[in-house]
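Table S5 (text form). Sequence records supplied for joint modeling of the two-component complex.
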Amino acid sequence: MIRRVLVAGGLWVFALSVVVPLLWVLVTAFKTGAEIFTSPWGLPHTLQWENFARAWQEAGIARYFMNSLLVTLATLAILLPIGAMAAYIFARYPFRGAKWLFGAFLGGMMFPLFLTIVPLFFLLARLQMLDTLHGLTLVYVAYSLPFTVFVLTGFFQTLPQEMLEAALIDGCGHARAFWKVMLPLAKPGIIVVGVFNAIGLWNEYPLALVIMTSDERRTLPLGIANLLMVEQYQSDWGALFAGLVIVMLPVLFVYWLFRDRIHETMVAGALKG
Amino acid sequence: MTPRARAAFITGFLLPATTLYAVFVVMPVVQAFAFSLYRWRGISANRTFIGLENFRHLFADPIVWMALRHNLLLFVGTSTAILVVSLALAHAIGSDSRAARLLRSVYLFPQVISLVVVAILWMFILNPSFGILNAALKAVGLERWAIAWLGEKPTALASIGVAHVWHALGFYIMLFAAALRTIPPDVIEAATLDGAMGLTRLRYVTLPLLWAVLRIALVYMAIGTMNIFSLVFLMTQGGPDRATEVMLTYLYEQAFKHSEFGYATALAVVNFVLVMALSGAILALFRHNPQEGKA
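The corresponding structure-token record, covering 568 residues in total, follows.
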């Protein structure tokens, strides 16, 4: 009995250790600069919505937000179709060298990002893609492919073969059968992979740090990190906390909507890998 | 479909993904190994082949050894903390009660928010003038403990370790809970009825059942801490006085502050090889499940 209370207590202590810091950020985002210093644990006297307005406009979060949105959506728009196409071949059309190529894709999940960062930097410089949103997008697509192809291949393998055969008998070509029949069937898998990648891309920091240099093209993580440096001189901490809330909320919202599928995919991916 | 049409179909479908992957991932990986053999400063194409000179220089560089020691300290410290907490909670969190399901969702919050947010959040918690940690310490009369956690050499690395554990813990709890769920509940129940509780249950029930997952988890933890970058880079920039320097922050400094691109790439190669070696060592060390075959 005592043990049960202890374990349950442990669960709640940990839950609180997760929730309290996040709530603290949320509450602090509504405080005045003076309140932040005088009563770290206290509640704001009146809600300072202006913190959000200043973060959004003066601190430039609006621009960073649009950049992140653009890069994330563009990456998904390229990644999901081409990832699904490749995964479909690996799942359904065996050919000589398929295992080898699939292995090469999976190997990408093993290589740490920083092994490639210097050569990648020079490659982008040569392609005139340093500090461009389309350069960052293409890099994001390439580095998201291993996980995407891995999960979608597994997904296509579970789809019934009869559906494909029926489509082919109906006179569909193989490509048409993919776009019209198999891809729609794979929608649940595509959604999970899309959400997973979206969260990762929205949060991504080291690649953006190396590739992007000018302020007007910063993504949100870069922008908020830069704001941290700037505010050490201007000390508009209220706006910075508001900025943190703006970065976190979309991700936590999307995560909450898809949390069960995300848990499954995370655990399955980890246990297979 | 004729063999020819089939080949065209396969090629067409594989081409976009394979091209992007080859250009932006495979080629840079191959180049990394080549770059590490050159002395190469600045953006110019002016580079000199120097063989293994970068590596010789690297092994004689005291900062590399210091950074490596910090990585290993982080690995040992954070993986111990993660294992203790997640194993203690794995049985309870894996149950299907509503509370457990709600908690499982909450636990992954730190995992899905950006590491940039995690870093800034912890910088603020630990902030000496308005952080909640020191405010709480002062409130209970522990003023002497209210220090600049990230600014003092003895506590800076540990503080980063705490932030890393906060970020990573939920994932491992999920992982162990999921692995325990794949085991028929009557096995655990039978052991529990037999009086196996606490450390006995941990040793004879939980650990053996989780052994395979534990191995993989340890490898993940090793990879995670050997490749730690964002938290350190944002929270301390490797300071104070390099007290939190790790391999990747040093690599970043060499490449993008000093333009020592050849040397930085050699660091990347060494770090990669070390991670592989450490992972291999963990897999070999934990190959045999001590309880296997015993009943």
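Note: Chain B has two domains: 1-26, 62-285.
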